[in-house]
Amino acid sequence: MSCTLNISDLGILPYEEALLLQRNTHQTVVDGRNSPTPSPFHLLLLEHDPAVITLSKRPTAGEHLLATPEQLIKAGVVICRTDRGGDITYHGLGQLIGYPICDLNELSLRIHGYMRFLEQCIIDVLAEFNICGVRDECATGVWVDGSKICAMGVRVSKWVSMHGFALNVTTNLAHFDLIVPCGLAGRSVTSMQKILGDACPPMETVKRVVSEKFSAAIALQAQVQKEPHQ
Q: Looking at the annotation, which residues are catalytic?
């Protein structure tokens, strides 16, 4: 079984188009379990345009939409329903979206462990830019000085993951005022640009570091899974 992470830089895509690509890749991974040369690990990297607010199936998610239809039109933000976990969130240009589509059986991970795996990958990415990202015991994602810099929400079907993370690089943070981000009232959001100012790296550099960190983490986790228990 290959532990290579197949990375696709998709550039800029509408949310619904990217969701279809996720579903197709998910099915490829599931079907590949019966193949002599399966590819169980994929990472789709992209930005979403038009800007979009996504609502999970959680019954209360719609209550955390603060904007009126008129405000959404003025901001150029659309609404999409989604099948990921979590609550409500925002995606737009300047935000690096990562959709890892991975066979969790091959990583010996279940949902809780997988979420911690994603968080650690982003913490490691931020460290490369001298940003100290941390976990929050009460909320999923990665935080810097109490503000969320990376939101996470996943779906796992047949033990293959979908959806993933949204890392604020140069994101328009004002658009988060349209919602209660992730349903967490009173919690602020931040970005690499807000923290680093003119030293903020370009998106292509962040993509490169994300690709490197995720590739290394997948390879390590897959190798640990294969090692015999003592």
A: 182
